[in-house]
Amino acid sequence: MKPYIIVAEDEDALSTLLQYNLEKEGYEVGIAADGDEALVMIEERLPDLLVCDWMMPKVSGIEVTRRLRAQSETRNLPIVMLTARSEETDRIRGLDTGADDYVVKPFSMVELVARIRAVLRRIRPGLSEDRVTFGEIVIDRLSHRVQRSGRDVHLGPTEYKLLDYLMQHPKRVFSREQLLDAVWGNDVYVEARTVDVHIGRLRKAINNDNEFDPIRTVRSAGYSLDMQG
């Protein structure tokens, strides 16, 4: 499944260029024209990384970062800040606010893509690895095989995508709507209760009779993958 990146940039030409180059690198990209739109998009579907311009109308990139860091759901969201400010004090301010990296305009697309890869490797290693582990569960993305405690787990394609996505964001609670967007996509109409059906199938496949169920149901909120119950 492609990592999902939101680009918050008010310059149309630059945001189009960013979208083209990031999609060419294998990322799924959403575009926000200002800080307000970025916050709404993040609330609707949590991205794997945010590329955010410092100077934007309505809500600045610094304020977007500050608000995201103040919420438990987005506290650990990787953020790469874009800015024309090159003074050391400005860079320090951006990083102190919570940005994970800071790229000064003008920049090369090769540099930006490399910075994004580096941030994802450091903060979300599961997005850049062919083998992902969470507790006793292992996903081998090259062979599309799943194992738990050394035994093979047989999953349908949707259950596989669900598990992969949850393992990329351990302990984070996702609503049914967020899981629908992440696994089924924005362009497919599926009822929210369909998520419950596939979560049930996933549970049945990965759990033996005496094994702990790592999929936690959070009442009125959604689902989370958590080995601590």
Automatic annotation (TrEMBL):
Location(s) in or outside the cell: Cytoplasm
Keywords: Activator, Cytoplasm, DNA-binding, Phosphate transport, Phosphoprotein, Transcription, Transcription regulation, Transport, Two-component regulatory system
Domain Response regulatory: 4-120
PROSITE patterns per UniProt: OMPR_PHOB, RESPONSE_REGULATORY
Residue numbers of 4-aspartylphosphate PTMs: D53
CDD domains given in the database record: trans_reg_C
Pfam family, one: Response_reg
Domain OmpR/PhoB-type: 129-227
InterPro entries: CheY-like_superfamily, OmpR/PhoB-type_DNA-bd, Sig_transdc_resp-reg_C-effctor, Sig_transdc_resp-reg_PhoB, Sig_transdc_resp-reg_receiver, WalR-like, WH-like_DNA-bd_sf
Residues in the DNA-binding region annotation: 129-227
Coiled coil stretches, renumbered: none
Function, in words: This protein is a positive regulator for the phosphate regulon. Transcription of this operon is positively regulated by PhoB and PhoR when phosphate is limited.
Protein name as it appears in the record: Phosphate regulon transcriptional regulatory protein PhoB
Organism: Asticcacaulis aquaticus
Name of the gene: phoB
